[in-house]
Amino acid sequence: MAVQTVATTPVTPVDLGPAAALSCRECGERFELGPIFACSSCFGPLEVAYDLPAEDPEALRARIEAGPENIWRYAPLLPVPADVAGKPNLNPGFTKLVKADNLARELGVTGGLFVKDDSGNPTHSFKDRVVAIAVEAARAFGFTTLSCSSTGNLAGAVGAAAARAGFRSCVFIPHDLEQGKVVMAAVYGGELVGIEGNYDDVNRFCSELIGDPLGEGWGFVNVNLRPYYGEGSKTLAYEICEQLGWRLPDQIVIPIASGSQLTKIDKGLQELIKLGLVEDRPYKIFGAQAEGCSPVSAAFKAGHDVVRPVKPDTIAKSLAIGNPADGPYVLDIARRTGGAVEDVTDAEIVDSIKLLARTEGIFAETAGGVTVGVTRKLLEAGLLDPALTTVVLNTGDGLKTLDAVAPTSGPTATIRPSLDAFRDAGLAH
Ligand SMILES: Cc1ncc(COP(=O)(O)O)c(C=O)c1O
Ligand SMILES: [Zn+2]
Fold first, then answer.
1. Which residues carry this modification: N6-(pyridoxal phosphate)lysine (predicted)?
2. Helix ranges restricted to H, 108-225
3. How confident is the model at residue 12, as a pLDDT?
4. Which of 20, 61, 227, 288 has a 20 to 30 Å separation from 343 between CA atoms?
5. pLDDT tens per residue across span 27-54
6. Could you say which of 2.170.30.10, 3.40.50.1100, 2.60.120.260, 2.60.120.10 is the CATH number of the domain covering 96-124+233-408?
7. Domain 128-231 - what CATH class?
8. Does ligand 1 have an atom closer than 6 angstroms to the CB of 180?
């Protein structure tokens, strides 16, 4: 097969906790755990298959609740060794699930509206979750360099995790990202390479690098370690349910770039049901894109099963993947659960960032503006039910995308330091 990348120093046996094998999402063929990501029979994507704990749900819940306040409380459900919490890593997760009553009032939601605020992670995006799992796989397979193709947040998360865990890092981004993302990716001291092109060009370049001796011994978290990396997003599903009192939400609104996060949140919810940790009842998954990069939303609305690639042009650069690898799976999940995929304009993204900030004191990056904007649009269209429990993801921090709101967010007035000047400015209430 063309896609296998072998680590320099294979370590056997691989201890990734309950992870038993990799299995093909398309044909179900199983493979030994390793740094591979595509099925050698049908080229379908591989995902982690588990021997999940056959444990009384009450006991498992208690074990999880007694764990650390980060993603490692869910180690029994993740491809990580049992002693993971003691290893050097950034310990992301267990971010706030904010009951957003002010926003709910503004949007007319009566069934309970929550914002899962993942800007609270160590490098201020949900990417710390996926990278933490990929780091454990990289350790197990003997890689010494961590790499990725990134729309910005992932590059920062890899740089930071590599610094902490003692890996070399070399990450690749489109050359024209926001300053906040570039600085965050560079400050941890690894190599950062800007590629003259968009994310899809960066990703193509990384796929070439992986098949070349130049990339030998490199763990690309979202390419050859992708099956493990993706599992990190399941922790969002686990946390949301645990924070709701071990209850499934009725509706979740999730941003889409490659679509990995959305598909793995669904996988996480399914696992919780299977393990008896939550009641088995329906939930709906909604995907959110920016209009300037909305290939999945377009396919959903057209009733297509395939996603036609687009050239991205949006301020939501973290979501600017024109050829999303998991697009078809997102379509399946949205349709199977009775959800939808919708998109919003750049102007609506900016408005929505400000709406969330004004109502809840949460400053979201553009991806959060996308989910809040799509939530509003889906409520107006009657596709989201205002009487049901709804969770909206904010996956990143507004400080990294200041440009989006800077032109319309400045001082109310600039005055001389005198009471008269303040009175004259008309701001005294
Ligand atoms: C802030 C933020 N939210 C959401 C996503 C979507 O991730 P995925 O590629 O898993 O769909 C990204 C991806 O870069 C991101 O940076
Ligand atoms: Zn296959």
1. 127
2. 127-141, 153-165, 179-186, 199-210
3. 62
4. 227
5. 999 999 999 999 999 999 999 999 877 8
6. 3.40.50.1100
7. alpha beta
8. no
Fold agreement (96-124+233-408, 128-231): yes
Residue type, 59: A
> Which residue blocks in 173-294 are alpha helix, DSSP H?
179-186, 199-210, 226-231, 234-243, 260-274
Of 90, 16, 97, 25, the C-alpha closest to 50 is: 16
Mutate to test the pocket of ligand 1, among 395, 397, 399, 401 (most ligand atoms within 8 A of CB): 395
Residue 220 in 3-state DSSP? strand
Is the pTM higher than 0.90?
yes
Cβ of residue 394 lying under 6 Å from some atom of ligand 1: no
Kindly give the distance from the C-alpha atom of residue 266 to the centroid of ligand 1, in angstroms, as a whole number: 15
CA 96 to chain centre: 15
Residue 58's identity, in one-letter code, is: E
To test ligand 1's pocket by mutation, which of 233, 261, 356 has the most ligand atoms within 8 angstroms of CB? Answer: 261
Nearest ligand, CA of residue 37? 2
Report the nearest-CA residue for atom 3 of ligand 1: 395
Question: How far is ligand 1, taken at its centre, from the CA of residue 318, in Å?
Answer: 6
* Pocket of ligand 1 contains residue 147 by CB under 6 Å: no
Block mean pLDDT (10 aa), the chain, length 429: 42 85 97 96 97 89 97 97 95 98 98 98 98 98 96 96 98 94 96 95 94 93 97 98 98 98 98 96 98 98 97 96 97 98 98 98 98 98 98 98 96 95 89
Domain range annotation of the chain: 1-51, 96-124+233-408, 128-231
Determine the pLDDT at residue 92. Answer: 98
Note the pLDDT of residue 53.
73
